[in-house]
Write a structure and sequence with these properties.
allosteric enzyme; alpha/beta; Lactate/malate_DH_C; cytoplasm; three-stranded antiparallel β-sheet
Length: 314
């Protein structure tokens, strides 16, 4: 029996601990289990977070084991090696697939019927690996994808145009990584095509601005890692946003990492694509309109991931 108010976070590093902090403040769960190969670390994080319980709605947070996850509605996997300076997300693949091969069997043997949300990088590859290793239906296994990248995109556009981010509708899709692409053809502000709105605000050098903003989105993680060693606040809030759509059954459209089954002419791989997310997980992948150039870029992004997948023993 799934308890919709209970979740687990596997991996208590920067991302896992910050995600737990974010979820506590949202009050979505009455019970939150922290699991880490370093049990002392998990216990320390649980103790520290628990001392703030008088100020939030989360009733119970504790360090547990895989035996505690059987009735969880959501299992968030952040465990994995951290991305280092000058290292791409794809450079992490073999180390983190090996870690996932230890985690997933522990989940499946408990008969868990909840959702798996993969956050560790490279997220699209690891989500595909989790899907193959778990045997779960594809809607129950999805990744954080480019939800954070899209937030970065909207933030930078809002700074460029001096308008609220909530009025901006724009996606980054494809790999959560160097081959990701911005869907400029569908970007708009309050329904007004992005280039038209830019001109309303006195911006006419569209190509230069597009390239500069896209580059800043794509390089954001590298810049943050160079400066402080890791990224965790942004992704923790992105995971909180995804989680809220699940628990509140909002059916938000989010660019999570989802299994493609013919959409965009692609299949048998996970890519970050706008998807309806609710209590059923990644309920439906959407085939949004793309320009010919964007479609080609998406296929190139898919090829990048397919080459990596072909090298894995799954």
């Amino acid at each position: 029996m799934v308890n919709m108010r209970k979740a687990a976070i596997i991996g208590c590093g920067f991302v896992g601990a910050t995600t737990a902090f974010s979820l506590m403040h949202q009050g979505l769960f009455t019970e939150l289990v922290l699991i880490d190969v370093d049990q002392e670390k998990a216990q320390g994080e649980a103790m520290d977070l628990s001392h703030g319980r008088p100020y939030v709605d989360t009733a119970k947070i504790y360090a547990g084991s895989y035996d505690d996850i059987a009735d969880c509605s959501l299992i968030i996997i952040t465990a994995g090696a951290n991305q280092k300076p000058n290292e791409t997300r794809l450079d992490l693949v073999h180390k983190n697939v090996a870690i996932l091969k230890n985690i997933i069997p522990e989940i499946t043997k408990r008969g868990c019927e909840g959702l798996l949300l993969i956050v560790a990088n490279p997220v699209d590859i690891l989500t595909y690996a989790a899907y193959r290793l778990s045997g779960f239906p594809s809607n129950r296994v999805f990744g954080s994808g480019t939800v954070l990248d899209s937030a970065r995109f909207r933030y930078l556009l809002s700074e460029h145009l001096t308008v609220d981010t909530e009025s901006i509708h724009a996606f980054i899709i494809g790999e959560h990584g160097d081959s990701e692409l911005a869907v400029w053809s569908g970007a708009n502000v309050a329904g007004i095509p992005i280039h038209d709105f830019c001109e309303f605000r006195g911006h006419y050098q569209h190509s230069d601005a597009m390239e500069a903003i896209y580059k800043r989105v794509k390089d954001s993680a590298y810049e943050i890692i160079d400066r402080k060693g890791a990224t965790y606040y942004g992704i923790a809030m992105a995971v909180g946003h995804i989680t809220e759509s699940i628990i509140r059954n909002k059916s938000s459209i989010l660019p999570v990492s989802s299994l493609l089954t013919g959409q965009y002419g692609l299949s048998d791989l996970y890519l970050s694509i706008p998807t309806i997310v609710n209590r059923n997980g990644a309920e439906q992948v959407l085939e949004i309109s793309l320009s010919d150039q964007e479609h080609m870029a998406l296929k190139k992004s898919a090829e990048t991931l397919q080459q990596v997948i072909a090298d894995l023993d799954l």
